[in-house]
Specification:
Elements: E1 19-22, E2 28-31, E3 46-52, E4 58-66, E5 83-87, E6 90-96, E7 101-107, E8 115-124, E9 129-132, E10 138-142, E11 149-153, H1 171-174, E12 176-185, E13 188-195, E14 211-217, E15 225-232, E16 246-250, E17 253-260, E18 270-276, E19 298-299, E20 304-305, E21 311-313, E22 317-321, E23 324-333, E24 338-358, E25 362-368, E26 371-378, E27 381-405, E28 411-419
Parallel strand pairs: 19-24
Antiparallel strand pairs: 1-2, 2-3, 3-4, 5-6, 6-7, 7-8, 9-10, 10-11, 12-13, 13-14, 14-15, 16-17, 17-18, 20-28, 21-24, 22-23, 23-28, 24-27, 24-28, 25-26, 25-27
């Protein structure tokens, strides 16, 4: 597809837990976990790095570190969320494994390969994050739930000063769950994390840390005041559970990087980006999940993959299509389900085409910005069929919602597009 959109990487690549960094070459680099398509578990035993000079075209630099490269964690099964820091000609990759132990590897290139230095003594808890302050002092953050800790890193960047270990955030005061990420902006320290304020305690059946919340302080290790939510990925998938991401400034604009689940599960998570805005008083405005991402609204005339939906309601989820082992589709659609695409750009289009199948007759309804616009019926079909219908002309930028109704047990949608009648 030739437009900027979410997710930002090809549909078969699942990179969650992203830490974004702009190094001295001006490119932006993404360091994240790697989920396996359709696999019902978190992460894989390897880390990739992706980079871009425009946030649209991304280079996969391949495997930069794996458990096989570790000197102490080869049998741990998976690599969880990493972070990276640069000092004196070396890039330091901070990684962790499911049991909570953390390690560090280093390279003279931001894209590795990273050579393992070893386990970081005194650090116990997932999702390491690192900050190098203006005076050169480096700090390491890590943990989950009550294991939210921070400490000063020694000059060698591979050991912590254990007598400096402290608790910058708490479950009680900040509703911290996991996913530390710390940036210094205009003299203030911004701590991003998976936040349970909005959807409850993850120890309860419906509790989900799906928000990226943030807290701000004048000090890198204490005094953080909770300030709100930057983005909430709730509704991206019926099984979504967590969120983990970061902020980075690129070409003068700040962005939030986060992930969205697929397959009706906690897993197979895609990396997404939204632009964010920071007020003069330091407040960050919450942004919505979008399909268009960092680019302009998606042209309605494009062949739009159904899997670009940014909000789902009901049983419907983004998953693999049995007819095509590569592409993702909207799958397991049930009566009353809907999918939302934010934002599409229209220029008088008056024809709608959709490719889908359903095991019984189905009615498809189109809504613009929540208001009904048109509907049509689709006959039952065991194979995917293309249906083209006339609709009232549309102009301008809109949020599109598709809804499905009928006595069908399940339906699958591959793609759709709008056009002008000749």
């Amino acid at each position: 597809m030739n437009f900027a959109h979410n997710p930002i990487l090809p549909e078969h690549i699942f990179i969650p837990d992203v830490e974004a960094h702009v190094w001295n070459d001006g490119r932006i680099y993404l360091y994240g976990s790697l989920d396996i398509k359709g696999q019902m578990s978190f992460c894989s035993p390897v880390h990739h790095v992706y980079s871009s000079d425009d946030l649209i075209h991304w280079v996969d630099h391949g495997v930069v570190f794996s458990l096989e490269d570790s000197t102490w964690a080869k049998d741990c099964g998976a690599l969880y969320a990493p972070d990276c820091a640069y000092r004196d000609g070396w890039y330091y990759l901070y990684y962790c494994v499911p049991d909570g132990r953390c390690g560090v590897a280093k390279s003279q290139s931001p894209t590795g390969p990273f050579v393992d230095v070893g386990q970081i003594e005194g650090v116990w808890g997932i999702d390491p994050a690192v900050l190098i302050d203006d005076d050169g002092q480096a700090y390491l953050y890590w943990g989950q739930l009550t294991w939210c800790h921070a400490a000063k890193l020694k000059e060698n960047m591979v050991e912590i000063e254990q007598d400096t270990i402290c608790t910058p955030l708490t479950v009680e005061e900040h509703e911290f769950h996991e996913g530390s990420s710390v940036k210094k902006i205009n003299g203030k320290y911004y701590y991003l994390f998976a936040d349970t304020h909005r959807h409850g305690n993850p120890d309860t059946p419906d509790g989900r840390p799906s928000c990226l919340g943030y807290a701000v302080s004048d000090h890198p290790m204490h005094g953080f005041k909770y300030c709100g939510v930057i983005i909430d990925n709730f509704g991206c998938d019926p099984g979504v559970w967590n969120n983990h991401g970061s902020m980075e400034q690129f070409n003068g604009q700040w962005y939030v990087f986060y992930h969205r689940s697929t397959y009706g599960a906690d897993y197979s998570r895609h990396v997404c980006i939204e632009p964010i805005y920071i007020d003069e008083d330091g407040k960050i405005h919450e942004v919505k999940q979008t399909s268009s991402g960092v680019g302009a609204a998606i042209k309605a005339t494009e062949r739009i993959h159904a899997s670009l939906a940014c909000q789902l309601r009901g049983r419907v989820r983004i998953a693999g299509d049995p007819e095509d082992a590569y592409d993702l589709v909207l799958a397991e659609i049930a009566n009353g389900d809907s999918a939302t695409y934010r934002y599409l750009d229209f220029d008088g289009e008056d024809t709608f085409t959709i490719r889908m199948r359903a095991d019984a007759n189905c009615r498809v309804e189109l809504y613009l910005d929540g208001a009904y616009h048109a509907d049509f019926k689709l006959p039952a079909s065991e194979q995917s069929m293309t249906k083209t219908v006339k609709i009232p002309a549309i102009t301008g930028k809109h949020t599109l919602t598709l809804s499905w109704y009928g006595k069908f047990e399940t339906a699958i949608v591959q793609e759709f597009a709008f056009s002008k009648e000749n």
